Amino acid sequence: MDLTFAKEDEDFRLEIREALRGLVPPDMARRTRQRVHPTKADLKLWNRILYDRGWSVAHWPKEYGGTGWSPLQVHIFEEELAAADAPFLTYFGPRLVGPLLYTFGREEQKRDLIPDILTGETLWCQGFSEPSSGSDLASARTSAVRDGASYVINGQKIWTTEAHYADRMFCLVRTDPSVPAQKGGFSFVMLPMTDPGVRVRPIVTLDEGHSVNEVFLENVRIPASDIIGEEGRGWDYTKFMLANERITNAHVPRAKRDLVLLKEIAASEYGASPSAARDEARRRIAQLEMDLDGLEWSVLREIINGSKNPAIASGLKIVASELQQRMTDLAVDMIGARGRIFYGEDDFERNDLPGNPGEYAPGLAARQLFLRATTIYAGSNEIQRGIIAKQQFGL
Amino acid sequence: MDFRLSDEQTMLKESVDRFVAQKSGFEQVRAAAAGPEGFARADWQTFAELGWLMLMIPEDLGGLGGVTADAALLAESFGRGLVGAPFVSTAVLCAGLLARADRPRDQQPLLDAIGGGEAIVALATEESSSRYGLDAIAAQAKPVDSGFTLSGEKIVVPDGAAAGHFLVSAKLAGTIGLFLVAADAPGLTVRRYRTVDNRRAADLLMADTPASLMIADALAPLERAVDEAALLLVAEALGCMDAAMSITAEYLKTREQFGRTLSKFQVLTHRVADMFVRAETTRSMLLRGLSALDAGPEIRAAAVSAAMVTAIDAGEFVCGQAIQLHGGIGMAEENAVGHYYKRIRAIGRTWGDRASHARRHVDLTQA
Ligand SMILES: Cc1cc2nc3c(=O)[nH]c(=O)nc-3n(C[C@H](O)[C@H](O)[C@H](O)COP(=O)(O)OP(=O)(O)OC[C@H]3O[C@@H](n4cnc5c(N)ncnc54)[C@H](O)[C@@H]3O)c2cc1C
After folding, report:
1. CA–CA gap between residue B367 and residue B364 (Å, rounded)
2. Closest Cα partner for B98 from B165, B40, B23, B9?
3. For B52-107, what is each residue's pLDDT tens digit?
4. A78, A301, B139, B338: which sits with the fewest CB atoms below 10 Å from its CB?
5. How many CB atoms lie within 10 A of CB B30?
6. Chain A residues touching B189 at Cβ < 8 A
7. Mean per-residue pLDDT for B157-174?
8. How far is the CA of A377 from the centre of ligand 1 (A)?
9. Which domains does chain B have, with CATH numbers?
10. What confidence tens digit (pLDDT) does each residue in A369-390 have?
């Protein structure tokens, strides 16, 4: 066992910090702090900036465009990105479909699709959930029917994040209705969002933001070669992606940045001299910091010497999602009555904002509201608890 | 002790429940909330016709002389129906303060206008760094020939956007005075905006704004009135919880996953059971608070803070879990449960928050 950070890793951190200095345009940094839903322009631009340095998919193997850094170095890199208020790159290409493609994709798919994920030229969205199939994903009904050299897709997806930004969707479909999902009934296809059979309808969430959508698929015809990997392996691929999602969704780097911001908010709201209100805020921050330390070390254990234990991944998802919620709960609590004000994302640029808030206040209440979703998406926390009971204890 | 409603209270409850049942389908609520004032003036007129706006005005000033427990019946039902009208702030809080003015008879015209539904009045106490402290303010009153002028700012005035008048706290020679300011007074800038619960608030910027003195030594009456209003927020929160709970239970009976209704998953039914227990405790704390309203100021304040802390925690749990148990659909703006949650969030930072109430309780109950 070696429980120290190596000198090279510390040096690496300083190098990265130096390299990132001034790289995030200040207005982009402010948007990252204030907005819970990144703009498409920021996602694209930041992807490009990272790509130019060879860093847009730092966590990937080198042969596909990654950096070849150690998992700890990738973690350090992501921490430094978050500390610089860089937008978190779109999830779906770099985190989900990219690894799926280089792990299971056919050679020509790797060749044709991966370059545009690296640059951010193609944005993807994830078509898993359907109106009657959320937690019970295996009951999904969207179908892809073979017709000569094509598949014809019909069905409906829902809660599709960034469908309105995306050029392509990777879509879980039933290719063989006669067998269950787990036994080869599902496949993954990719489809162009510009197809006339694709209709995207926005869903406004309770924070009044727009990141999720309904996607209606009506006779969308794709070439048979646009099935990802092999037909019938959709369920294996789903499990592969969800396992990745649970760990990266811990978002430790962003949480560490948020902790710093919480301390800044506390200093600004409560000043430097002791008071009961200040003491209480500081105690709550300390509790969050301890909990975040625990989460971080759990994540480090998993990314450095992966246990591959699904119960561990599910546990990380539970801890991280609840921690993210508690952090924004506290942020809103600290801004007092201003926490009641609705600041629309389009208002942030104005300088006569209601309540004369500090720079940090606009966006917090909306963020707090949107983060109610962290315990629902990527497998609800109830489902994760079920997985732990089953996988760890056979219950 | 007798916890049953009187005959009059039963009638009042029936009438408000009927109003809410008719008027507050979720679509209607959203339409009203989308209007410029966040509520429908037509509903406000109905309130006046039903006598609700004079309920809390004393009989000798032409009102019905109701008690806070009566108003709580209305507030609870408004919570259930997400009714956004400024009942608590105008018809209870400001009407109550005007009735306790140093010269209440002078306020008769304004009280009549409140009772008749013509006047909306909002209380402006919060400032940039007052953190709910009614005495922690900087706004200043200055005596002039014609009366007083006020200078300073107030922020996030509840229901401030529709108000024709404000009751404004300001420092006056070593005390806190309470002043009446017209919304169109010279030297007053009103910035109106939306709050997370889709209501409307306002910031006031006052520069030598003419004002008339209502209460010269206002801190104690203000604390009493705001405590009463806080209890009505507890009642409203209870209505929100009740509605969110029943919508959720209904959803569990109909939504299917894994080939059965969600109601077959015990973790979810137990969650609803916990929601119920928390809501019932809130009801007990509301009644306990009501019983202490006319006790000494310290007993009253501790009981109100205890009720608020209970309601804020319970509301966060009940309405937050209502979203959780709905899954994705609970996150949609089109779904009612999120709106109950947002109202709870707003209630929990109106005239005090969990932390300020918990601290006040400590200060009042521990050496
Ligand atoms: C903001 C947001 C973004 C999303 N982004 C995407 C996306 O990009 N792509 C995509 O495909 N999907 C996305 N989703 C969908 C998300 O994965 C689903 O919402 C989630 O899987 C839950 O499904 P559901 O909404 O149908 O809820 P349901 O499955 O109906 O669940 C309702 C409630 O029942 C509980 N429950 C269900 N089954 C059980 C059980 N067996 N035991 C105990 N409790 C149970 C759940 O925990 C929940 O509390 C997103 C969702 C949100 C809110």
Report:
1. 8
2. B165
3. 999 999 999 999 999 999 999 999 999 999 999 999 999 999 999 999 999 999 99
4. A301
5. 15
6. none
7. 97
8. 5
9. 7-115 (1.10.540.10), 121-216 (2.40.110.10), 221-365 (1.20.140.10)
10. 999 999 999 999 999 999 999 9
Q: Residue ranges per domain, chain A?
A: 7-89, 124-232, 249-393
For residue B267 the two structure tokens come to 């973790």
Distance A17 CA to ligand 1 centre (A): 37
Instruction: Judge whether residue B36 has pLDDT over 90.
Output: no
Angle made by CA atoms A292, A294, A299, in degrees to the nearest 5: 90
User: Exposed/middle/buried for B177, CB within 10 Å: 0-12, 13-18, 19+?
Assistant: buried
Query: HSE-up of A152 (CA within 13 Å, CB side)?
Result: 6
ipTM of the complex: 0.97
pLDDT tens by residue, B122-153: 999 999 999 999 999 999 999 999 899 999 99
3-state DSSP assignment of residue B8: helix
By Cβ distance, the residue of A205, A280, A368 closest to B331 is A205
Contacts of A91 (CB under 8 A, 6+ apart): A126, A161, A248
Atom of ligand 1 nearest to the CA of B324: 49
CATH number of A124-232: 2.40.110.10
pLDDT in tens, A221-267: 999 999 999 999 999 999 888 877 777 778 999 999 999 999 999 99
pLDDT of residue B24: 65
